Each structure stands twice: as structure tokens, then as C-alpha cells.
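sry for the spam today, last one i promise. C-alpha cells for design, 105 residues
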């Protein structure tokens, strides 16, 4: 199963429309559809947000083989979840910004 197929399956299992899921993930419905159809792949931080939204186990969407990376992301997710909600949002913005800086290299 691909990342997109797993994403779509999780969304449907949660009885959530694409529009609702896109709003929760703060992306366009077209972006979400592109992910579900495997035309594009969400960034790692977005994958974490998707897994959190649908209460999926870490790595469920990607079935990643990189244990060190998975463990680091799990630890980061746990640390962020312990923050107050406003700080969680700020932390995710910082991580997304950092991720963009790295991907632009």
C-alpha cells in the first residue's frame, strides 16, 4: 500500500471528507487529493501531523525503515504534545520552516 492509499484509508475510516481533513491539516483540498493519489508526497512533518490527526501509529503512513529517524520523530512528537496548545502550533511552525530551509538546499 502506498502513502496515498494509507492516507485515504485512514481519512475514510475516520469518516472525514477531504475538505474536513484539508482544513485540519491546513492545506488545500487539491493538495490532499494529490497526496492521496500519490502525485505528491507530504513533507515528513506533515506526515506526523496526518498520523496525529487520524491517531495512527508513528510510521504507519510511510512504513519507514529508518528506526533512528522514526524514534527521533516520535520523541519530538511526544515533546511537542506536552506543550500548551499555542506553543505546539508555534513549535510546528518552526519545524516546518526549518524543513523548508533544508529542502530548498
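last one done:
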Amino acid at each position: 500500500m502506498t502513502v496515498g492509499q494509507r492516507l485515504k484509508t485512514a481519512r475514510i475510516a475516520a469518516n472525514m471528507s477531504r475538505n474536513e481533513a484539508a482544513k485540519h491539516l491546513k492545506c488545500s483540498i487539491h493538495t490532499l487529493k494529490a497526496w492521496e493519489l500519490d502525485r505528491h508526497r507530504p513533507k515528513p512533518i506533515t506526515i506526523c501531523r496526518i498520523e496525529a490527526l487520524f491517531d495512527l501509529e508513528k510510521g504507519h503512513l510511510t512504513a519507514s525503515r529508518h528506526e533512528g529517524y522514526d524514534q527521533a520523530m516520535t520523541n519530538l512528537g511526544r515533546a511537542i504534545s506536552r506543550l500548551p496548545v499555542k506553543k505546539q502550533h508555534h513549535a510546528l511552525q518552526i519545524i516546518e520552516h526549518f524543513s523548508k530551509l533544508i529542502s530548498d538546499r
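The chain is about 70% helix and 0% strand. ok im logging off now
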